[in-house]
Amino acid sequence: MAAVETTTDATPAIHETALGETGLPGELLPLHASGPRAFGWWGMAWLIGTEATLFALLIATYFYLRSQSGPAWPPDRIPDPELRLPLVMTVILWSSSIPVHLADQGIRAGDVGRLKAGLAAGFALGATFLVLTLAVEWPDAHDEFGPTTNAYGSLFFTITGFHAAHVLVGLLISLWVQVRVWQAAFDRSRHLSVQNFATYWHFVDIVWAFVLATVYLSPHL
Amino acid sequence: MATTVVSDAPPRPATTVERLEDDWAETPGLGSWVGTVDHKRIGLRYLYTGMAFFVAGGIESLLIRTQLAGPDLDVLGPEAYNQLFSMHGVTMMFLFAMPVLSGFGNFFVPLMVGARDMAFPRLNAFGYWVLLAAGIFLYSSFLVGRAPDAGWFNYVPLAGEAFTPDINIDFYAIGLIFLGISSTAGAINFIVTILKLRAPGMILNRIPVFVWGELAMALQIVFALPALTLASVLLELDRKFGFHFYDPGEGGDPVLWQHLFWIFGHPEVYIVALPGFGIASAIIPTWVRRPLVGYTYVVIGELAVALIGFGVWVHHMFTVGLPNIPVGFISLASFTVAIPSSIQVFAWLATLIAGRPILRTPLLFVLGFIFIFVVGGVTGVMFAAVPFDQAVHDSYFVVAHMHYVLVGSAVFPIFGALYHWGPKMTGRLLDERWGKVSFWLMFVGFNLAFFPQHLLGLFGMPRRVYSYDGDLGWDAYNLASSIGAFILALGILVTIANWFWAKARGEPAGNDPWRGETLEWYASSPPAPYNFVTVPTVRSREPMWDQPELAFGAQAPEDGGRPLTGGHLTLSTSMLDARPQAIVHMPHASIWPLLFSLALLALAYSVLLELWPLTAGAVVACGASVMGWFWPRGQTQET
């Protein structure tokens, strides 16, 4: 389909947007949409809605089983969770949202360099978090208890495991988006995948706040 | 893209149709058959698959009723009986009602909102294939004689490893996790389609009520289904890996299953009912020849039922022994559901009274629905009273109530819709006389089958017991119920035969055989792959009645019709007031949704059978098919 360029002197960002004819005399509409104008943006929004419900129910499950348990929590003489490493991991994970956000902002301005750098930095921080979870935090916790020790152990490993799985999926999406960046797929008006990845990544970071509060902080109360 | 017509070229409509044929026609053949993303073909697949499972679930129920026709019969043993009633429930909820209602939604939501396809066509195809795979997965349990046997709500500890060590329950839990992927994908697709693909001018208060019903259903799926998925995942972690979520010996709690299940399970009742309400609201105006009375109240009623439905799950648990105060709140909320439900019933009755009813088959089924649903609603209000609930819990009174509500609000509207919308789907009219015969057989058979069960319940007959003694005074009621079940089945067979007869040699329907009010009648019967020659501009809640230019099937550009040729194109419009925002390239047919669902099927079997190397392979295959799916190629929308 023949795309035509606008020649109006509107805001510069719109200059490069390709327009197409709808068949109504004189009506031209953009051929590429991002943000809430794009179907994909809404698809991601509702996916996050259903995923957030899943995490909310997991956390409700934690407090429900705690409420049905005896006065000691964690039970069976398991010590309260160590906080030092989880807090370091928190800083690492949350700081990964900054480059991802900058990458998203970058491509909106057409800056592919910032996109590449931001995605790579976000990936490195996210991967560090995941490695710390699997290689340090879990083995440390596992010295005291495992997922089959009791319901507390099942909750601990299932909730952190669900979150880690989401980080892993986020990293895979990031890889995919980075491959597409190197194929020069994105520009000022076409970057919905970047936007959707950023939305998902921020969601995973926000969920961590609840996981941290539930699994690591609440037993100290 | 050139819309300028050379001066001596043929007139605009012919040109536009040819261009659209070029853009949208799927070349016949295996590739298009397995790869199609046409919402109408997918909708029909949902419908046929759902009806096939309806027949399977119906056969299960007839076996159950044969066993219960008299005291101490020996048609089925207790183990077979447990498997049959469990699979009957699972089938009717998950493999019949949801797919068939999604099928009508798939076929008609894009048509009724004036779009050329669903928002995510390949996700749509994927949802169907996953449903089919999950259905095959669940039913393959019969081949090894290990069908789920702990009821459709599958309570632990009975469903735990200690009491059901065999794989019956794993079929259930893995099957439902698997099926949840299909329902969630479908629900998100419906929501985005309804919010973003409406024809220009279809502002919120011009959306057809059926579409509102599908939207309410989809919203419930998005927020309710995670509870079922989570409950099933935790159950499999307990069963397969020795976790302790439901194990009271190690800090777990069996009541957790009940909470999670019913947080999903009560909304599930409305997931099945709300589209049925929507079908009734779509059929009534056409057949009484006037707009629905109280449109705004009906829509608010649908959404209110959907919302309150999340706050009543504990009324399935009144005998668990929970504290009094939450039970009181839930009881109150359960009474409250009656208000938005009755608003809808009164709106339908007012429309019937204010209009001129034409008593043909579609309207008969809707009248049958209203009668049956009101009876089920009245017993529903009785259940909201805690003491009454405790008295009849787990008796046949519950079975009677639940069938009145679900058969009333799903089966009767679905059958009405087959007669009302069948001509649009196949292009042929169903036979009217046999339609009436089918309705009366179903209506009489249904009431004969289920009304006596109210009494049996009050006499104390427990549900889910495979046999009973002859000296309890239950024989005549049970025999009547079994006879009713067979009459109901006969009525259903008449409509199925009618459908296939009509498909082969029914009278051609024409675009608008009933002079309907909404946009599905603007398309041809069956609709072309691109749905409409021009995407219409909507100026009324009943566009086909109020916009005479739509009657010709191609609103002219000067009236606001957009041909939108030059590719697989549809319009993105703003959420509230449906102003055109962008032109969107829709994807073409693709094999990847099918391959992805096959990889998921392999994953499901590998976990079921604990073949962990196969699991690893299946995960890789899933990843590969997702990559294949999103691999950029030619025409698809760049994102």
Structure notes:
The complex is a heterodimer of chains A (221) and B (639). Chain A is mainly alpha-helical and 221 residues long. Helix content of chain A is 67%, strand content 4%. Chain A is built from 6 helices and 3 strands. Chain A has a 3-stranded antiparallel sheet with strand order 1-2-3, with no helix packed on it. In chain A, a hairpin with a 6-residue loop joins strand 2 and strand 3 (28-30). In chain A, helix 4 (112-144) runs antiparallel to helix 5 and helix 5 runs antiparallel to helix 6 (192-217). In chain A, 39% of the residues are buried. Chain B is globular and about 75 Å long. With 639 residues, chain B is mainly α. Helix content of chain B is 64%, strand content 2%. In chain B, strands 1-2 form a two-stranded antiparallel sheet. In chain B, strand 1 and strand 2 (580-585) form a beta hairpin. Chain B is built from 18 helices and 2 strands. At the A-B interface, helix 2, helix 5 and helix 6 of A face helix 6, helix 7, helix 8, strand 1 and strand 2 of B.
Write the layout of secondary structure elements.
The complex is a heterodimer of chains A (221) and B (639).
Chain A: E1 4-5, H1 12-15, E2 18-21, E3 28-30, H2 39-67, H3 84-108, H4 112-144, H5 151-182, H6 192-217
Antiparallel strand pairs in A: 1-2, 2-3
Helix pairs in contact in A: 2-5, 2-6, 3-4, 3-6, 4-5, 5-6
Chain B: H1 12-24, H2 30-35, H3 39-67, H4 78-113, H5 121-143, H6 168-196, H7 209-241, H8 254-288, H9 295-308, H10 324-354, H11 361-384, H12 386-392, H13 396-426, H14 432-459, H15 475-505, H16 543-546, E1 569-573, E2 580-585, H17 592-608, H18 612-630
Antiparallel strand pairs in B: 1-2
Helix pairs in contact in B: 3-4, 3-5, 3-15, 4-5, 4-6, 4-8, 4-13, 5-6, 5-17, 6-7, 6-17, 7-8, 7-9, 8-10, 8-11, 8-13, 9-10, 10-11, 11-13, 11-14, 13-14, 13-15, 14-15, 17-18
